[in-house]
């Protein structure tokens, strides 16, 4: 008898865990809960619930996070902050002990490459037009080719602005796709404003017409279209990433433009999605987000 009961318990759990859809949120008297196949899993006592890519139950200032099988991932006491990456459909959670967890619909993300934004935004409804600017360096000139219109726009002399000239992708050529207009994809669930981060912002901080160059052994950044200096030539090192720069001066680091132009960290790692790990000169550790806000380990 005990064996038969155990079998049915296992079967019921398997059906719950391997259903094709997420557990559903429901509303009762302006409060929200979670049910699965009409069975109430969380009672309707929560102010807000998000069900994608994982389940976030919010009650007052308390947040509890579950996976799509209703297994507890993080309780309120261990959560420092979290952010929903809108177009990436991912959630990142910082815990008070300095750990970063990233989730999508399949669960925990261990491949950090999946947290990087891509140049191309897929849209089956063709709600935008796209084109491409291709820059390249040849014969000590910067050339711009607009692939949409199919012609060379202009040539720019860069010799007087230093040597070791590189585009922001750290190469001698760069091809950037751009959008003329963009229609936001609507999610099935309403997204909570205080945790949502729009992926479009990933592409806004740095212009494609910036290059890194070196004068008298020091690095800076030059806008070759407007012909003006963006970062003065007094940095020991500048490392271009997808759409931000790591800059070094006096053995300290910062990210431009996210954090600022004044290096202040003795250790600073590249962004993992929305957050980057840092260590200050007085040995304090934590994470800094893409807006420059710091979260210290507790």
Strand order of the largest sheet: 11-10-9-8-17
Q: Helix coverage percent of residues?
A: under 10%
For the termini, the CA-CA separation is 50 Å
Total of DSSP H or I helical runs spanning 4+ residues:
1
Strand composition percent: over 45%
The helix/strand order is HEEEEEEEEEEEEEEEEEEEEEEEEEEE
The number of E-state strands comes to: 27
Largest sheet, strands/sense/barrel: 5 strands, mixed
Structural class comes to mainly beta
Oligomeric composition of the shown chains:
single chain
Low-confidence stretches: 1-19, 119-129, 178-189
Looking at this protein, list some descriptive labels.
298 residues, mainly beta, five-stranded mixed β-sheet, disordered N terminus, four-stranded antiparallel β-sheet
What do you see in this structure?
With 298 residues, the chain is mainly β. It is 5% helix and 48% strand. The chain contains one helix and 27 strands. The chain has one helix at residues 2-17, and strands at 24-28, 31-36, 39-46, 48-50, 55-59, 62-66, 72-74, 79-85, 90-95, 100-104, 107-108, 130-138, 141-146, 151-157, 163-167, 173-179, 196-197, 210-215, 218-223, 228-235, 237-240, 245-249, 252-256, 265-268, 275-280, 285-289, 294-296. The strands form seven sheets. A five-stranded mixed β-sheet has the order 11-10-9-8-17, with no helix packed on it. The chain has a four-stranded antiparallel β-sheet with strand order 4-5-6-7, with no helix packed on it. Strands 14-13-12-16 form a four-stranded antiparallel β-sheet, with no helix packed on it. The longest helix is centred in the first third of the chain and has 16 residues, at 2-17. The protein is elongated, with a radius of gyration of 24 Å. It starts with a helix and ends with a strand.
């Amino acid at each position: 008898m005990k064996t038969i009961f155990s079998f049915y318990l296992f079967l019921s759990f398997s059906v719950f865990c391997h259903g094709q859809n997420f557990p559903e949120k429901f509303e009762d008297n302006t409060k929200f809960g979670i049910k699965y196949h009409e069975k109430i899993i969380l009672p309707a006592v929560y102010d807000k619930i998000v069900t994608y890519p994982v389940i976030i139950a919010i009650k007052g200032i308390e947040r509890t996070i579950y996976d799509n099988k209703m297994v507890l991932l993080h309780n309120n006491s261990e959560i420092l902050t979290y952010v929903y990456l809108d177009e990436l459909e991912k959630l990142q959670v910082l815990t008070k002990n300095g750990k970063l967890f990233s989730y999508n619909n399949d669960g925990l993300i261990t491949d950090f490459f999946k947290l990087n934004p891509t140049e191309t935004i897929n849209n089956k409804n063709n709600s935008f037009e796209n084109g491409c600017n291709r820059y390249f360096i040849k014969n000590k000139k910067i050339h711009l080719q607009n692939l949409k219109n199919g012609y060379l726009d202009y040539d720019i002399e860069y010799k007087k602005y230093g040597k070791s000239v590189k585009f922001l992708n750290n190469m001698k050529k760069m091809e950037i796709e751009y959008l003329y207009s963009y229609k936001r994809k609507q999610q099935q669930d309403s997204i909570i404003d205080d945790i949502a981060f729009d992926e479009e912002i990933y592409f806004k901080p740095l212009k494609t017409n910036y290059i890194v160059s070196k004068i008298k052994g020091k690095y800076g950044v030059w806008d070759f279209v407007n012909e003006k200096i963006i970062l003065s030539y007094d940095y020991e090192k500048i490392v271009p990433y997808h759409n931000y720069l790591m800059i070094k001066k006096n053995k300290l680091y910062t990210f431009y433009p996210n954090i600022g132009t004044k290096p202040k960290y003795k250790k600073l790692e590249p962004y993992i999605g929305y957050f980057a790990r840092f260590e200050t000169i007085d040995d304090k550790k934590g994470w800094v987000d893409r807006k420059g806000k710091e979260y210290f380990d507790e």
